Amino acid sequence: MTHAPRTGIWLIGARGSVATTTMVGCAALVAGLHPPAGMATETPELADAGLPPLASLVFGGHDTTDCPLPKRAEQLTTAGVLPYGLTQTVTHELEAADREIRPGGPAPGDTRTDEQLIAAFTHDLTDFRRRIGLDHVVVVNVASTEPASGGAGLPPSTLYAAAALRAGCPYVNFTPSTGLRHPALAAPLATSRLPHAGRDGKTGQTLLRAVLAPMFRQRALTVRAWSGSNLLGGGDGAALADPAAAAAKNAGKERVLTDTLGPGVEGQVHIDDVPAMGEWKTAWDHIAFDGFLGTRMILQTLWQGCDSALAAPLVLDLARLTARAHEKGLTGPLEDLAFYFKDPEGTPPASLADQYDRLLAFGRTLADRPDTGDTGAEAAEAADAGDTGDAADTGTGTGTGHAGTRDARTAR
């Protein structure tokens, strides 16, 4: 008797606001309690992409805190992020996911080496997949932006990414943290042949920029300056109070302007931590441009929203799309998922409309491309058996588990 396929979603930062909202939201959608607002994968345009059903998703993850998910969900309810009464309705699902969350690291005072941490994280992933009988496990980093690494070891996001490679799991970086883009992972990433996507989810201010910047270019209006400001609280606000962490975030925000309008546009983005704002954020943009005969004009935008509620549907989209890509044997950077990121892989178009066209074409590829029979099982079996392959020169030992035979860059 064959079992119904199930897909694991392993969240880095599994007890954070984005992860908790994602898991509560998925349970609510499966129960038919709310419509799938914000999810492109639930629209008719992607209905035939063969994505794993929401009901087939099983959640687990890593976190350095021990607050139970039901309690975290109640905190988000008090903050106005989740509807009142919803947490009680999906308590069973939250408790099940909470049982699959493992201690992350390095925690303060943690004496384990990079290799020991990667080995522990890899064991957690392979145990999750084997024990529950999952067909695929996608690792998604939704932790707060990490501060700049000042030590000799690898940053935490890279330790988790290395474990994903070693365990034969596709990887999505929804944060501006380093993740797979550390030089130490270049060689093992190239040989892993796993699909991966990132980085830094595009939820608000940059989403508007990806729409407005092409408008100015297409209408031949010269943008003289584009400045922005962000006020936010919560864990991300505290993390982005670090100037180095904020710089990584801002680089993604500014990329869309450079890619669309070219270099030389004046202005910067500022991020301010305002703890009193809690889970909410306000983003303001001031755009100065020249019209016909040099007439000076200004456009201002104001975006007020809840980042967790904006991010959660994107996390579900990305996990399902990446899992399907893995199932179909696609490998390498998933450039066609640029629609979701501030700083996407490769050199995709910067316009949101063009990125959306690429996403729909990708969906057709997922539906039409025939299976090859090689969907990452070899890597999974090797990881489950403790065969981690040859260690990288850096000592990360991410191995070479083969996950497929096609480069995702050809899937357009």
Largest sheet: 8 strands, parallel
Low-confidence stretches: 372-377, 387-406
Structural class category? alpha/beta
How many strand units?
12
First CA to last CA: what distance? 36 Å
| Alpha plus pi helix count | 13
Strand order in space, largest sheet: 3-2-1-4-5-6-11-12
Multimeric state of these chains? single chain
Shape: globular
Comma- or semicolon-separated keywords:
about 400 residues, alpha/beta, eight-stranded parallel sheet, four-stranded mixed sheet, 13 helices
Question: Would you write up a description of this structure?
Answer:
The chain is 38% helix and 18% strand. It has 412 residues and is an alpha/beta fold. The strands form 2 sheets. The chain has an 8-stranded parallel β-sheet, sandwiched between helices. Strands 8-7-9-10 form a 4-stranded mixed β-sheet. Helix 1 packs across helix 11. It is globular, with a radius of gyration of 21 Å.
Give the SSE layout:
Elements: E1 7-12, H1 17-30, E2 57-63, H2 69-78, H3 86-89, H4 91-98, E3 101-103, H5 114-132, E4 136-141, H6 156-166, E5 171-173, H7 186-192, E6 195-198, H8 205-218, E7 222-232, H9 234-239, H10 243-261, E8 269-273, E9 280-290, E10 296-306, H11 307-327, E11 330-333, H12 352-368, H13 377-384, E12 406-407
Parallel strand pairs: 1-2, 1-4, 2-3, 4-5, 5-6, 6-11, 7-8, 11-12
Antiparallel strand pairs: 7-9, 9-10
Helix pairs in contact: 1-2, 1-11, 5-6, 8-10
What is the compact description of this entry?
By secondary structure, the chain is an alpha/beta fold.
